[in-house]
Structure formats: structure tokens, C-alpha cells
User: Fold these one by one.
Assistant:
Number 1:
Amino acid sequence: MKTNGYDYYNDLANWSFDDINYTEEEKTNWNYEDEIKKSVNENTRALDLGTAAGEKLLKNYPDCAEILGTDFSEQMIETAKKNLLISGRNNISFKVMNNLKMDTQDNYFDLVTARHTIIDPVQIYKTLKEDGKLIVRGVDKLDCWSLKRLFNRGQGYHDVKPISLIDYENIIDAGFKEVELIPLHTIEYYKTKEDLYALLIKTPILDEFSEEAFEEYERKPIENDLFEKYVSENTSEKGIKLIRRYYGITAKK
Ligand SMILES: C[S@@+](CC[C@H](N)C(=O)[O-])C[C@H]1O[C@@H](n2cnc3c(N)ncnc32)[C@H](O)[C@@H]1O
């Protein structure tokens, strides 16, 4: 089945990852949510790029002067607006916007956040105020590496340069200062194989999906024999183990 990044995310707009039963152990002590909380005060104007249905924005952002959540998926933004109404929170809005064609005001935001989405550091730089902060969290090439090795495919599997390094260099080249790249390591344990399967169906972990080639890619069915092999080799009393490799980046304009 062929798909592209836009259709893929539109199809996910009414689906919640809360349905998957897993636990996680963070092995590194940098935390994206804590970084946001530390960076927000009552006067902050913040922009969250690739916000999806806004659940994380609504959960992680403290109250402040203004929060705008954007996503290129109309369905996601529609769901985000419903979630906002349910939350009853103020000073928050959502709008459709492509991260690669940002139309926000120049020198306007104190904080831009982007979690697991594509970014253009040059455009982010323009929309930040002087001394404004950028906080990014991304999925790295080595994420779920043993699983991808077994299937011989997956997100970023064939990338020559890991996306963490591409983002890091692009952020420096855009003119940011105090740029820090932090490798993140988390171990997840899925309660049942159905939980792990649901994750693999609902994410591009095993797809030839890359931010470098987002236009069109093939979604292959998950080979049952390989899936069963992974489950039997990675099951412990804690659940089925999956090693996640993310990265965090902080920078200042
Ligand atoms: C993996 S989800 C992450 C959602 C949310 N930030 C989170 O951490 O849960 C990626 C989101 O980025 C959005 N996205 C991908 N490419 C985009 C682009 N070029 N412009 C705007 N949004 C984009 C997708 O629609 C999707 O909602």
C-alpha cells in the first residue's frame, strides 16, 4: 500500500496511543516536558509545531500569555480544537500550517517546540524573538534498531546521516547559539504482543519512512514469522522489550 506523510497523519487523527499498554524506563535524564515547563512563564508566547491533535500541548504546557499549536493535517487540527474545548483552557489556539511554509509573524514567539515532526530551523529562527528558545525532540536512526535489523527495513534505516545530526547542523547553520544535542535512551516494555503490534501498525517504525524522503513510501504488511521471532527473543517478566533512541535539541536565537 502506497502512502505519503500527509495522508498517513490524516488517517491517524482520531486515534490515541493511550490504547497501547506499555511501561517505559528512561535511561537518560533529559526530559522534553520538563524543558518546556522550565522555559515558560506567564508572559511567554509559544508555538508548538506538528502538534497533531494537541494532546501533548494541552498536557505539557503550563498556562501562559499565548500558545499556538499548528499542524499541516486539517483533521488533526479539527480534533485539536475539540480537545481544546473539552480542556476548558484559555490563551490557546490551533491552526493548519505546514512547518516548511510557516506563516507566523517574525520576531514574535519566545518559545518554539517541535516533538517528533519535521522542522525548518531557518523559518523557526525568523519567528522567534531575540533570545527566544527552541526545544526539539526527535526519533533517531537507531530507534528500535534490533527490530529494524531483523526486518531489514524501517524509519530512517537507510539514512546516510541520522536525522538528529541533520537537525543539529541545520539549527547551528540557521544562526542559533548555545545549541545542544542530547541523545535519549528509553526502554519500553509492551504488555502483550497485541500491544506491540498495534504500535507497529500505527507508527512508521517499520516503514521506509524518512524525513528526507517524505513524499511517497510503501507500507508493507508486518511479516508474522519475523514479528513472532522478535517477540520470543525479547520477552521478559516486564513485557516485550523495545529499545527507543530519541534525541533532544535546545537552542537560543
Ligand atoms: C509523530 S506526530 C507527533 C505529534 C506530536 N508533536 C507529539 O509529539 O505527539 C507528527 C505530527 O507532525 C505533523 N507533520 C508532519 N509533517 C508536517 C509538516 N510538514 N508540517 C506540519 N505538520 C507536519 C503530522 O501531521 C503529525 O501530526
Note: Residues 5, 9, 50-52, 56, 71-73, 76, 98-100, 115-118 surround S-adenosylmethionine (CB under 6 Å).
Number 2:
Amino acid sequence: MTMLLEGKETPFDTELFNGVMEKLKELQQEDYIESRRIIAEHLRSSMMIIADGGRPSNLDRGYVLRRLIRRMIRHMNKLQIDLKELKTLIDINVKDLGEMYPELIKNRETIEQVIIEEKDKFVKTLEKGEREFKKVIERLEKEISTKNEIDKDRKEIAKIIPGEVVFKLYDTYGFPPEVTAELAKESGYEIDVKAFDELFKKHQEKSRAGSEQKFKGGLAETTKETVAYHTATHLLNAAIKQVIGKDAHQRGSNITVDRMRFDFNCDHKLTPEEKQQIEDLVNKWIKEGLPVTKEEMKKEDAIKSGAECMFIEKYPDIVTVYTIGNVSKELCGGPHVKNTNELGTFKIKKEESSSSGVRRIKAVLQ
Ligand SMILES: [Zn+2]
């Protein structure tokens, strides 16, 4: 719309982008208009996403932001612009766009901090990744020329970079696939997008389940103590449901060798009676010596069996379900004790507000 109103030929000639585009021209040592446009567009988008609360990560919108910032950095390198100038470019955008988007002014410090942090992370691996990429091209070129020597009449060989290479560059050096695709194009190659997507999907399923498991159990390290606390967490979860109600869902947990922390939905401070009832229930189950059993099953069967879980879509198709006697059934990565009689005595040390509508219990096993 601005382009039409201003009578310009591309969005990048409008006053929305002009400030940054001109500055890039001034700063650049190499002249690529496409790179200037990518930088201007990705910087603006990144700033908006960060102002809106997005943060770089390997999942969902965080991954979109990460790719925008990293591709932008790659193109700044291509133009041989000092990455310190990012701050200057951010300032120009805040000045040019801040009137329309006051959230850019309000969040200016955060925006700069997030972009610089992500830049620092990527810069560490960018050079190594580019060297690795060059090696791959040399290897492929050699392979192609050998094949051509053997069979001089053969048709031209497709110049394709295998999905595993694209994935390795992503996984080891943090190269988003579009960055690898651009590098490839500069050498006359294409990337195998389909093969990469498949590997990437598998990897994401794994890391989702992994982060979910950490979120649920909080088991950063596995010791005799943390395993016992993990099982106690499942018992506490079940006890809270019996005493407070079915809607008192787990919201998070954290375990160390000497205590457990458990967050759950609840609209009120627990009464002394409620705390006592919860504590008594857990201790009753411990005394009963309930067996803890583990089963692998299809996700849909787990749901049908009534197993507890949060964010079902984040689990892989085959899941592990831990059952404790007939009091608890949860999707969980484990590990757990074999029998609840290994746990000792459960004691609630503290009950407090964690955030709005969420209560937090700190407890120990003695
Ligand atoms: Zn668990």
C-alpha cells in the first residue's frame, strides 16, 4: 500500500525501508541488492516478533525468529558489514517505525539484547559451518568429475546437496536450511529439501518429547534421590487431584537431590486441612508399597486408558506410561522406583502462590 501511495517500484524504496536500505549501502563493502533487501526485511520482522514477545528457539515461532536473524547475519557477512552496526540499524528502524509501532520504542532494549545474543550464538558456528560446507562442495565436485570421466556420454548430473548434509549443518552449526540453500545456489547446487524436512521432523518430535519430559519430571540428573522424588511427584499429582479436584492440573515441576517442587492450577491458598489430607494420602500410598510399572503403547491407546498428560500433541506416536498401583497413570519418560515403599516419608514444607491461579508446593522425602 505504501509503495502504491508513494509511487515506488518496490517496497524497499518506500520510507518504511528507506532508512535502513540507505544505511546498508553506506556500510557495505560488497554490493548485492538482494542481500540488502533480505537484511532490511528480516530485521524489521525480527524486531516486530521480539516486541510481540517472541524469542529465538528451535520450535515453532521461536524457530521462525531464529531463522530470520541468522539469515540476516549471513547476508551482513556477505556484504562485509561489521556486525556491530546491527545496533545502528535497529536504531534507524525504531526511529522510522516507532511512531506507528510504539511497542518498538517500548521494547527497544529487549529487541537489541535478543538480536545481539542470537547473533553472538550464530557467529560462533558460522565460520566453521561455512568451512564444512566448502569441504562438502569440494567432495561433491570430485565425485561428479570422477563419474564424468568414467562415462563421458552421460547426461549432466543433478547438483544436489544431500539432506543429511543440510541437516548436519543445521544440527551442528545452527544453519537454517534456507541459509544452506543460498550457499548452495552460489555454488550452482540445490539442496534436497524433502530429505532434510524428514530428518528435521524426526528430530523435532524427539526434542519436543525431551523438553516435555524435562518439564514434567524436572529430572535434570538421575540419582537415587531424584528418581525417588520423581515417583513422589506422580503420587503428589494424584493426591492433589483427589483432594482439590480433577481440574487441579500439573503446571510444572522441578526436582533436585534434596527437594521437589510442584506447580498446579488452583484458585485458592490451600487450607491446613487440605495440605494435611494431601500429605496423608501420599504417605498412605507409600506405606501400601504400590508397584510402579512401565508400559509402551500407542499415544491414542494411552489417552483412552485415561493416562494423565499435558500437551498430548507434543508427544511422539509411541509413548511410555507409568502406572502406580491403581492411584496414578501418567505419560512420562521416567525413570522411577520399582515400588513406592522405597520413598520414605513425604513432607510438605511450603505452599505458596507461583503465579495467578497457580499454586506451588515444596516438599521433601525424609
Ligand atoms: Zn514423570
Note: The longest strand covers residues 346-355.
